[in-house]
Amino acid sequence: MSARDSLLSAYQALLLAEGHRATTLEAVAAGAGVSKGGLLYHFRSKEALAEALVERLDELVGEDREAMRSAEDGPSRYYVRTSVWTDSPLDRTLVAVAQLAQESHDGARAAMARARDGWLELIVEEVGHLPTARAILLIGDGLYFDAALTGGADHVGAAHVGPDELMPVIGHLLDSAPR
Which of 10, 76, 86, 155 could form a disulfide with 31 if both were Cys (CB 3.0 to 4.6 A apart)? Predict the structure, then answer.
């Protein structure tokens, strides 16, 4: 991993663990094991770190959209099936950028909207009906939110719902969507 990637990963980890206010340049440099000067060589400011993290999200979402587009069971089922926390690079980056968006970072908000619009576009292509596609997107979003609230399937006693349980519903939506 390059020094730049290590710094960006340290920034992301700090956002996830402690929030936006804790992401001082000194804390990011310490998290990456470099001097503040080493950090400033790659990123001149916290804003530059945020912009690079948004770029990382755009790249990961692009990769995810390609996997979604080529999924054997189709984009809708792929989206719902993968709408669970797996601690993947996409998960970590998505949540870190969401932290920035909550702090009114315009670039982060735009990246979140681009991701959502990109996923919705592929579902619409498959379904052919925008309201049905939005319902499928919201089911996936709900799964992700449910996993975040309950700690996922590992949380004892949680009313956790998994993607497999909802696949018949997705099939019904796909079959009944007006064309």
Answer: 10
* Closest alpha carbon to 145 in 124, 160, 165: 160
Query: Any idea what the Cα angle at residue 96 is, between residues 93 and 98, rounded to 5°?
Result: 110
Kindly state whether residues 6 and 66 are assigned to the same domain: no
Does the reported pTM lie above 0.70? yes
58 and 33 in a single domain? The answer is: no
Phi and psi at residue 19, to the nearest 5°: 90, 170
Q: 110, 115, 108: which is closest to 90 by C-alpha?
A: 115
Report the number of distinct structural domains present in the chain. Answer: 2
- 29 three-class SS: helix
In the structure, what pLDDT confidence band is assigned to residue 156 with cuts at 50, 70 and 90? very low
Element (H, E) at 21: none
What pLDDT score was predicted for residue 141?
Answer: 94
* Residue type present at position 12: Q
Amino acid identity for residue 1 in this structure: M
SS3 string, 129-155, reads CHHHHHHHHHHHHHHHHHHHHHCHHHC
Position 109, amino acid: R
Residue 81 and residue 177: Cα distance in Å, rounded? 20
Using DSSP, state whether 159 is helix, strand or coil. Answer: coil
